[in-house]
């Protein structure tokens, strides 16, 4: 069922792209973390942001001269860096998503664009990397679908190139049905971890 929803979303995206006035490609860096809730025994204290990446394709359909809709299809690496309790080293959590943002934008000036909209994500893989060892952790980070809201500011460097800065605030937990306990073992509810992502990207308009 989940894969059918993903395929349907991609099909809608492809159909939308076909009618877009502008089509382009983009790539760049992510600055990502997971915010854990509840913060039991300093759970978030061991987590920190890390550098990741994204790349993909976008389309732009103008509703009016200054208003447009911009759907995107991105492959995006998210996750976090956390301290290993048994070591002084840090481990990296890699959450690899297929993301489908749909942004509603407004041309503020000739060069500046402001956009806002929802982002749907499908988790392709969840892996923890520590030293040279990679471990699948999709039994913990087990929610395949992620949903968030994005706000973006874009600057047109030229007719073909643009520079974008974006923040995406995850609203759904990437962990589900996993309980947490306090320091003496009493259950305190289910674990929640929500994606937080800053993106810096450069785009190239093909059409």
Observed structural traits:
207 residues, mainly beta, 8-stranded antiparallel beta barrel, two-stranded antiparallel sheet, 1 helix, 8% helix, globular
Structure overview:
With 207 residues, the chain is mainly beta. Helices cover 8% and strands 64% of the residues. The strands form 2 sheets. It has an 8-stranded antiparallel β-barrel. A two-stranded antiparallel sheet has the order 10-11. The longest helix is centred in the first third of the chain and has 17 residues, at 2-18. The chain is globular.
Terminal Cα span:
34 Å
Overall shape: globular
Total count of strands: 12
Annotation field: number of helices: 1
- Given helix and strand content, the structural type is mainly beta
Largest sheet: 8 strands, antiparallel, barrel
Rounded mean pLDDT score: 85
**How large a portion of the residues is in β-strands, by DSSP E?**
over 45%
**Low-confidence spans: pLDDT under 50, at least 5 residues?**
none
Radius of gyration: 19 Å
Strand order of the largest sheet: 1-3-4-5-6-8-9-12
Percent in helix = under 10%
Order of helices and strands: HEEEEEEEEEEEE
């Amino acid at each position: 069922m989940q894969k059918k929803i993903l395929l349907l979303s991609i099909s809608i995206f492809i159909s939308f792209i076909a009618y877009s006035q502008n089509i382009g490609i983009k790539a760049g860096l992510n600055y990502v973390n997971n915010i854990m809730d509840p913060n039991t025994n300093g759970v978030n204290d061991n987590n920190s942001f890390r550098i990741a990446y994204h790349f993909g394709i976008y389309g732009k359909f103008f509703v009016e001269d200054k208003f447009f809709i911009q759907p995107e299809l991105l492959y995006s690496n998210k996750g976090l860096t956390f301290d290993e309790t048994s070591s002084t080293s840090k481990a990296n959590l890699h959450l690899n998503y297929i993301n489908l943002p749909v942004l509603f934008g407004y041309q503020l000036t000739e060069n500046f664009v402001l956009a806002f909209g929802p982002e749907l994500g499908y988790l392709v893989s969840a892996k923890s990397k520590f030293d040279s060892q990679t471990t699948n952790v999709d039994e913990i980070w087990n929610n395949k679908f992620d949903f968030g809201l994005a706000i973006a500011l874009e600057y047109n460097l030229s007719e073909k190139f643009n520079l974008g800065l974006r923040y995406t605030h995850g609203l759904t937990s990437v962990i589900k049905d996993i309980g947490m306990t306090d320091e003496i073992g009493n259950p305190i509810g289910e674990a929640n971890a929500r994606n937080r992502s800053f993106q810096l990207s450069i785009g190239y308009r093909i059409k």
